[in-house]
Amino acid sequence: MGLHVREDVEAARRRDPAARGFLEIASLYPGLHAVWAHRVNHALWRRGFRFVARAGSQLTRWLTGIEIHPGASIGRRFFIDHGMGVVIGETAEIGDDVMLYHGVTLGGTTMSPGKRHPTLGDGVAVGAGAKILGPVTIGAHSAVGANAVVTKDAPPYSVVVGVPAKARPRATDEDTRRVLMAPEYMI
Question: Which of 8, 21, 75, 168 has the highest local Cβ count within 10 Å?
Fold first, then answer.
Protein backbone atom coordinates (compact mmCIF):
# COMPACT_ATOMS: atom_id res chain seq x y z
CA MET A 1 0.00 0.00 0.00
CA GLY A 2 2.91 2.38 0.72
CA LEU A 3 3.94 2.38 -2.95
CA HIS A 4 0.42 3.31 -4.02
CA VAL A 5 0.26 6.16 -1.48
CA ARG A 6 3.48 7.66 -2.83
CA GLU A 7 2.28 7.20 -6.42
CA ASP A 8 -1.07 8.82 -5.63
CA VAL A 9 0.51 11.81 -3.93
CA GLU A 10 2.96 12.24 -6.82
CA ALA A 11 0.07 12.02 -9.33
CA ALA A 12 -1.75 14.78 -7.44
CA ARG A 13 1.39 16.91 -7.33
CA ARG A 14 1.89 16.53 -11.10
CA ARG A 15 -1.73 17.34 -11.96
CA ASP A 16 -2.51 20.13 -9.50
CA PRO A 17 -0.48 23.33 -9.87
CA ALA A 18 -1.62 24.41 -6.39
CA ALA A 19 -0.09 21.32 -4.72
CA ARG A 20 2.75 22.27 -2.39
CA GLY A 21 4.13 19.12 -0.83
CA PHE A 22 3.66 15.55 0.31
CA LEU A 23 2.23 16.34 3.76
CA GLU A 24 -0.28 18.89 2.44
CA ILE A 25 -1.49 16.61 -0.33
CA ALA A 26 -1.70 13.50 1.85
CA SER A 27 -3.50 15.36 4.62
CA LEU A 28 -5.82 17.75 2.82
CA TYR A 29 -6.89 16.27 -0.53
CA PRO A 30 -10.34 14.63 -0.20
CA GLY A 31 -10.01 13.00 -3.64
CA LEU A 32 -7.02 11.03 -2.39
CA HIS A 33 -8.79 10.12 0.85
CA ALA A 34 -11.75 8.82 -1.16
CA VAL A 35 -9.48 6.72 -3.40
CA TRP A 36 -7.57 5.30 -0.42
CA ALA A 37 -10.82 4.42 1.35
CA HIS A 38 -12.11 2.86 -1.87
CA ARG A 39 -9.13 0.52 -2.03
CA VAL A 40 -10.04 -0.82 1.42
CA ASN A 41 -13.77 -0.98 0.62
CA HIS A 42 -13.12 -2.67 -2.74
CA ALA A 43 -11.00 -5.35 -1.05
CA LEU A 44 -13.82 -5.98 1.43
CA TRP A 45 -16.36 -6.11 -1.43
CA ARG A 46 -14.32 -8.66 -3.36
CA ARG A 47 -14.01 -10.84 -0.24
CA GLY A 48 -17.79 -10.89 0.21
CA PHE A 49 -18.10 -8.36 3.04
CA ARG A 50 -20.62 -6.37 1.02
CA PHE A 51 -22.46 -4.63 3.86
CA VAL A 52 -19.25 -3.50 5.55
CA ALA A 53 -17.86 -2.29 2.20
CA ARG A 54 -21.03 -0.30 1.45
CA ALA A 55 -21.03 1.17 4.95
CA GLY A 56 -17.41 2.22 4.46
CA SER A 57 -18.20 3.83 1.12
CA GLN A 58 -21.10 5.76 2.66
CA LEU A 59 -18.92 6.98 5.51
CA THR A 60 -16.34 8.11 2.96
CA ARG A 61 -19.08 9.87 0.99
CA TRP A 62 -20.15 11.69 4.13
CA LEU A 63 -16.57 12.73 4.94
CA THR A 64 -15.39 13.69 1.43
CA GLY A 65 -18.46 14.40 -0.72
CA ILE A 66 -17.23 11.72 -3.14
CA GLU A 67 -19.24 8.54 -3.68
CA ILE A 68 -17.38 5.54 -5.07
CA HIS A 69 -19.27 2.25 -5.05
CA PRO A 70 -17.02 -0.45 -3.55
CA GLY A 71 -17.65 -2.65 -6.60
CA ALA A 72 -16.03 -0.15 -9.00
CA SER A 73 -12.58 -1.07 -10.38
CA ILE A 74 -9.99 1.70 -10.23
CA GLY A 75 -6.46 1.68 -11.64
CA ARG A 76 -3.27 3.24 -10.34
CA ARG A 77 -2.52 6.94 -9.94
CA PHE A 78 -6.21 7.89 -10.11
CA PHE A 79 -6.73 11.53 -9.11
CA ILE A 80 -9.94 13.37 -8.28
CA ASP A 81 -9.35 17.13 -8.22
CA HIS A 82 -11.57 18.99 -5.72
CA GLY A 83 -13.97 16.06 -5.88
CA MET A 84 -17.21 17.32 -4.35
CA GLY A 85 -20.15 15.65 -6.03
CA VAL A 86 -18.24 12.92 -7.87
CA VAL A 87 -20.27 9.70 -8.22
CA ILE A 88 -18.78 6.44 -9.51
CA GLY A 89 -21.16 3.50 -10.01
CA GLU A 90 -20.73 -0.16 -9.12
CA THR A 91 -19.65 -1.56 -12.50
CA ALA A 92 -17.47 1.41 -13.51
CA GLU A 93 -13.93 0.55 -14.63
CA ILE A 94 -11.23 3.20 -14.48
CA GLY A 95 -7.79 2.73 -16.00
CA ASP A 96 -4.42 4.00 -14.82
CA ASP A 97 -3.52 7.71 -14.72
CA VAL A 98 -7.13 8.92 -14.94
CA MET A 99 -8.20 12.32 -13.61
CA LEU A 100 -11.70 13.55 -12.75
CA TYR A 101 -12.75 17.03 -11.73
CA HIS A 102 -15.61 17.84 -9.34
CA GLY A 103 -19.20 16.98 -10.17
CA VAL A 104 -18.40 14.10 -12.53
CA THR A 105 -20.85 11.20 -12.70
CA LEU A 106 -19.95 7.75 -14.02
CA GLY A 107 -23.51 6.50 -13.86
CA GLY A 108 -25.84 3.81 -15.07
CA THR A 109 -28.91 4.08 -17.27
CA THR A 110 -30.63 0.77 -16.51
CA MET A 111 -31.73 -1.37 -13.58
CA SER A 112 -30.61 -4.53 -15.37
CA PRO A 113 -27.88 -6.62 -13.73
CA GLY A 114 -24.48 -6.75 -15.38
CA LYS A 115 -22.26 -4.03 -16.81
CA ARG A 116 -24.17 -0.75 -16.62
CA HIS A 117 -21.54 1.91 -15.86
CA PRO A 118 -18.74 3.43 -17.99
CA THR A 119 -15.23 2.24 -18.67
CA LEU A 120 -12.48 4.87 -18.85
CA GLY A 121 -9.22 3.90 -20.54
CA ASP A 122 -5.75 4.81 -19.31
CA GLY A 123 -4.90 8.51 -19.25
CA VAL A 124 -8.48 9.81 -19.59
CA ALA A 125 -9.30 13.26 -18.16
CA VAL A 126 -12.91 14.25 -17.41
CA GLY A 127 -13.90 17.90 -16.95
CA ALA A 128 -16.08 19.35 -14.19
CA GLY A 129 -19.73 18.38 -14.25
CA ALA A 130 -19.43 15.84 -17.06
CA LYS A 131 -21.86 12.92 -17.02
CA ILE A 132 -20.78 9.65 -18.63
CA LEU A 133 -23.78 7.36 -18.59
CA GLY A 134 -24.28 3.68 -19.32
CA PRO A 135 -21.86 0.93 -20.32
CA VAL A 136 -19.90 3.15 -22.69
CA THR A 137 -16.14 3.12 -23.20
CA ILE A 138 -14.00 6.23 -23.33
CA GLY A 139 -10.80 5.27 -25.12
CA ALA A 140 -7.34 5.81 -23.67
CA HIS A 141 -5.89 9.33 -23.56
CA SER A 142 -9.19 11.01 -24.33
CA ALA A 143 -10.49 14.21 -22.74
CA VAL A 144 -14.16 14.74 -21.86
CA GLY A 145 -15.09 18.42 -21.70
CA ALA A 146 -16.81 20.13 -18.80
CA ASN A 147 -20.56 19.42 -18.56
CA ALA A 148 -20.55 17.00 -21.49
CA VAL A 149 -23.23 14.30 -21.42
CA VAL A 150 -21.70 11.16 -22.90
CA THR A 151 -23.89 8.20 -23.88
CA LYS A 152 -21.82 6.75 -26.75
CA ASP A 153 -18.37 5.20 -26.97
CA ALA A 154 -15.39 7.38 -27.86
CA PRO A 155 -12.24 6.04 -29.50
CA PRO A 156 -8.77 6.52 -27.99
CA TYR A 157 -7.21 9.98 -28.34
CA SER A 158 -10.55 11.77 -28.61
CA VAL A 159 -11.96 15.03 -27.36
CA VAL A 160 -15.58 14.45 -26.28
CA VAL A 161 -17.77 17.53 -25.86
CA GLY A 162 -21.38 18.72 -25.94
CA VAL A 163 -24.89 17.65 -25.01
CA PRO A 164 -25.25 15.06 -26.33
CA ALA A 165 -21.50 14.64 -26.52
CA LYS A 166 -19.71 14.00 -29.77
CA ALA A 167 -16.14 12.78 -30.15
CA ARG A 168 -13.52 14.25 -32.45
CA PRO A 169 -9.90 13.19 -32.91
CA ARG A 170 -7.46 14.80 -30.53
CA ALA A 171 -4.51 16.69 -32.02
CA THR A 172 -1.19 15.11 -31.05
CA ASP A 173 0.07 18.33 -29.41
CA GLU A 174 -3.22 19.15 -27.64
CA ASP A 175 -2.72 19.77 -23.92
CA THR A 176 -5.32 18.06 -21.70
CA ARG A 177 -5.64 20.97 -19.28
CA ARG A 178 -6.18 23.39 -22.17
CA VAL A 179 -8.85 21.10 -23.68
CA LEU A 180 -10.72 20.87 -20.39
CA MET A 181 -10.61 24.64 -19.83
CA ALA A 182 -11.32 25.91 -23.38
CA PRO A 183 -14.52 27.97 -23.53
CA GLU A 184 -15.61 26.36 -26.79
CA TYR A 185 -15.77 22.99 -25.01
CA MET A 186 -17.81 24.15 -22.07
CA ILE A 187 -21.58 24.14 -22.02
Answer: 8
